[in-house]
Amino acid sequence: MRKWAACAFALALCASGALADSAAQTFRLAGGELAALLNALAAQGRIQILYDAELLAGRRAEGLDGTYSVEAALTRLLRGSGLEAVAVNADTFVVKPATRSTLPPPALDTPVVPRQAPEIELSRVLVNDAGISRLAMSPTMPVTEITREQIDSSGYTTLFDLLKAQPGIQVANQPEAMAATSDANFRTGASGAAAVALRRLGSKSTLFLVDGRRIAGYGLAPDGTGTVPDLNAIPLAMIERIEILRDGASAIYGSDAVAGVVNILLRRDFAGAEASVYAGASDRGDAAAQQASVSWGARTASGIGLLLNLNYLHASPLTGDQRSWYSLDQRRQGLRDLRSLYSFPGNVIYDDGSIEAAQGCAPRNLTARGLCVLDGAKFTTLQNGNNGKSLLGRLDVPLDGSTRLRLDLRVTDLVQRQQAAPSAAQLVLASLQEESEPQPVQWLYSFNDIGPVRETTRSTLLSLGAGVDGLIGSWTWSVDASAQRNRVVDTIDGLVRDDAFRLSVDGERYTFGDTPPSAALRALMAPRAVRRGSSTLEEASFATSGAAFDLPAGAATLSTGAELRREGVEQRPGLTLQSGHLLNQPREYPLSRHRVASAAFVKLDLPILESLGADLAWRVEKTGRFAAHGAPTLGLHWRPAEGLLLRASSSSGYRAPTLHELYQPRSIGNPETVWVPESAGPCVDTLASTTGQAACLLSVTRGGNPALRPETSHTTAWGLVWSPSPSFSLSADVYRSVRRNEIAGVPVAYTLDHADRFADVVVRTQDGRIAALNDVLVNLARTTTRGIDAEARWDVDFGRAGQLRLNVGLNYLDALDRRGAPGVPVARSAGYAATPRLTGVSTARWALGDWIVGANYRYVGSYRLRPYADYVAPCAAYRAAQGKCSVPPFGLLNLNVTYSGIPHWAFTLSVNNVADHQPRYYEELSGGYNPAFDDPVGRYYAFRATYRF
Q1: Neighbours of 576 (CB within 10 A)
Q2: % the chain with pLDDT above 70
Q3: What pLDDT digit, counting tens, does each position of 153-190 carry?
Q4: Mean pLDDT calculated for residue range 620-637
Q5: H-assigned helices in 708-853
Q6: I need a labelling partner for 293 at 20 to 30 A (CA). Which of 419, 642, 817, 887 fits?
Q7: Number of neighbouring beta carbons within 10 Å of residue 825
């Protein structure tokens, strides 16, 4: 904390004085799209202009050529549009539908002294159509904007929860990574990371930006395919708004933007000081959380701006034993009891196949058949406990009339805690009885007296950025550089050594439940395991934008730029994890790799006719040892009538393999159930069989493949925006995206049919039985996704009865088809396997005087429990008999009320999950809970108080 205070003090020394007034300037802007003209005006005038992209879609304006104050220039551009620009501080304006007024408009050709700005905060938008600082708000591509107003109305307290509730967004990595399968989950080592993805194409195909910059990945990888961005490292209280581009955007943003881009814009300008405190708890009295935030900002008479924001969050963990519905025993839903036979003190298996409980099993854990069971779900974390501290500092310094220096610092320190069921083992027994009696051969045992497996992850993020931007004639330019590092220390207690029964301390040995082990023996049997990791990203970029040449309908705008970045990962498992002597844990190996990527892009906006325009973009990028790859994009937009915009786009994308996909050392994991065609021959351990295939228990090894190639994609979209009035807009876009050369493991059936190409994948015994698989990553898979995005906004002014703002967003998934390799049957997943076809979210905000009432409703459609259509195994008869082959649709409603009638104060009362909806999920091994959609907490009450100085 001392380091943070020192950084904040150093930034604070740069600010002094009072706010500056605007002055008359010379503006020369050719007529064209209103959004582009506002962007150019903001760049030339060194101001901030905020607007709803759909509100401006298809609107055009005459240019400017003369000397005006900023307010006069804005008034002239917006003349006749039904819009107005409202100043919220000295250099920030919001464009919104014009309000009725009896006052005459100001003179257009003379400077106007701005009115005193109210002390309210609003983010500063760095408008740069090259896409370095914010998304290029082109009318040809759908961009969803989540405003601060919508964030406040949502009721969510974390960025991860907010984004995973958006329609069509997939949870790619859940912070609570454990399930009720004991210690096996700890092989991932990234349980602290939270990530989502667009178009259901995975987080590595979605590019995440903060203020236009890429985000360094979480310090530890969730699997062998690479790191993910950790959304938990960005406090929601620090965010001003979020922009989501749902189409492939590699032509502008480069590798990883295959499915789209999520740009998170942090708070930038702030006048005055504000302190906020938050406290919440479920109506059951648990899952408590406390949060505090302090912001201070000012701008001097010379134009220097400073912002400091501090956040603190503490959240208590929620475990499975605190929710009665979370259990592996789902008989309450008419399903099966799948509590584990790996229990305490366990079950003994005899050579005749009989099983009986070991002596000492608690009566509550005995089944009707007399077996001892363990409900691992009761040990499992449903919601992590965490403590987080974060700092955001910004400095904005004018160097001369048209050049400005920007500095920013972001630091986050986040500690998360979770747990899972105790380690378990299948022990081989020696003969203990007369040979005439059944002989005990195995013991299914859980180390409950060692305790649950507990994991603590501490991640520290440091991000430094600097930029200079300016104006040369009518051209804007910017130079930007940044450095980020995410370090993680992962500590795990409770993992038991595989030779635990041979260990002793001062003559004490483990007695398997007879006598609790001493602290010394426990520490020897379950040594603390530590893994460390880091992810680094350094970037430098240059961009420029301006009018290139004149067309009959206006000036063509050219944006171009170049980027250079260096990315690296380092994974350092401790000696305990490298030893390979832990139950259920593969041996881990260190990894340290870096690479450099460079790129150049060009974007051209062409006003072909008054009602017709086009966008052309091309990017060439070279990543590491891979050859340079080009990605083009073409967009068209046509306005056939007032208030109606038609748009279409076609874009190519690509994604270079991650460093983990290329170089991850090969390791042996736990045995897995793999479906193998019967034609391939028998397996060593066959669990079940159906027509044409058998379920085999195989040992599987996994690792990187240096021979991988980049993935490629092509996305097309068609849509319309209908805005008959400034207070209403409706948009709908149909999209289709195909990802080729997809990186994935080789399907077993394909390897067996192409044994000459994959001779080393299938491992057989001397008699030809299949014993193991060497899973190899290859570029064989292909995924096609197709659907519809729709959004609507409606503002209603009821006069004295208040103002109502409604926002609705929907995604309908028509297809999600994946082919694992050429010739392999397509797995059609839309509507199956936790992939609902219809998802939606709507927000409502009603303001009346000192009161604001907000509501957020999230809808999740039904989906079937089978992995995909045409899956060989039918729905189980016991499920079909009760109509539980599909998960029913459901909705979650959040409400909040804000009162600001006391000077300087604002109070908000929130109720999340108002109906106290409990999960209804029919997979027993998941405990009746799907973490991608379900809310485990239930009805939740929260109170926030804010004081503005």
Answers
A1: 20
A2: 88
A3: 788 888 999 999 999 898 888 877 654 445 555 555 55
A4: 93
A5: 748-753
A6: 419
A7: 11
**How far is CA 894 from each of CA 153, 287, 859, 918, 937, rounded to the nearest angstrom?**
8, 17, 12, 15, 13
Q: Is the pLDDT of residue 353 over 70?
A: yes
The CATH architecture that domain 24-116 belongs to is: 3-Layer(bab) Sandwich (3.55)
Spatial distance between the Cα atoms of 229 and 263, rounded to a whole number of angstroms: 12
pLDDT at residue number 706: 93
Residue 136 reports pLDDT greater than 50 = no
pLDDT digits (tens, 9 = 90+) for 574-595: 999 999 889 888 888 999 999 9
Averaged pLDDT, 191-196:
82
Coarse DSSP helix, strand, coil percentages of the chain, rounded to the nearest 5 percent: 15, 50, 40
Q: For the chain, how many residues are written?
A: 949
Q: Can you tell me whether residue 102 is helix, strand or coil?
A: coil
Burial class of residue 441 (count of CB atoms within 10 Å of its CB; 0-12, 13-18, 19+): middle
DSSP string, 418-452: EEEPPPEEEEE----S-TTSPPEEEEEEE-TTT--
Report d(CA 375, CA 924) in Å as an integer: 11
Q: Produce one character per residue of 380-403: b if its CB has 16 or more CB atoms within 10 Å, e if not.
A: bbbbbbbebbbbbbbbbbbeeebe
Encoded tokens for 103: 């006052």
Whether residue 903 has a cis bond before it, omega within 30° of 0: no
Residues of each domain in the chain carrying CATH 2.40.170.20:
143-316+325-340+375-496+528-666+703-745+776-948
pLDDT value at 57 more than 70: no
Pairwise CA distance, residues 51 & 35, whole Å: 9
Q: What is the pLDDT of residue 733?
A: 95
557: exposed, middle or buried (C-beta count within 10 Å: 0-12, 13-18, 19+)?
Answer: buried
| Residues 6 or more apart in contact with residue 800 via CB below 8 angstroms | none
921, β-bridge pairs = none
- Please say whether the beta carbons of 164 and 174 come within 8 A: no
Alpha carbon of residue 554 to chain centroid:
40
d(CA 478, CA 616): 21
According to DSSP, the residues that pair with 899 across neighbouring strands are 851, 907
Collapsed DSSP state (helix, strand, coil) of residue 639: strand
745 vs 50, higher pLDDT: 745
Cα–Cα dist 793/803, whole Å: 13
Q: Quote the pLDDT of residue 128.
A: 35
Residue with tokens 């998934």: 813
| DSSP type of residue 333 | G
Residue 214: C-alpha distances to residues 90, 307, 733, 937 (Å): 30, 22, 27, 33
pLDDT at 461: 96
The answer to whether residue 552 scores a pLDDT higher than 70 is: yes
**What distances in angstroms separate CA 811 from CA 630, 733, 860, one per listed residue?**
30, 10, 10
* Gap between the Cα atoms of 543 and 565, Å rounded: 15
CATH no. of 143-316+325-340+375-496+528-666+703-745+776-948: 2.40.170.20
CA 866 to chain CA mean position, Å: 26
pLDDT greater than 50 at residue 9: no
Residue 939: other Cβ atoms inside 10 A: 15
* Strand intervals (E) in 612-671: 612-623, 629-641, 644-655, 667-668
Concatenating the DSSP letter of every residue in 158-199 gives: SHHHHHHTSTTEEEEE-SS---SSGGGGGGS--TT--EEEET
pLDDT digits (tens, 9 = 90+) for 477-500: 999 999 999 999 999 999 999 888
CA distances from 68 to 461, 634, 660 (A): 44, 36, 55
pLDDT above 90 coverage of the chain, percent: 54
Q: How many Cα atoms within 13 Å fall on the side-chain side of residue 649?
A: 30
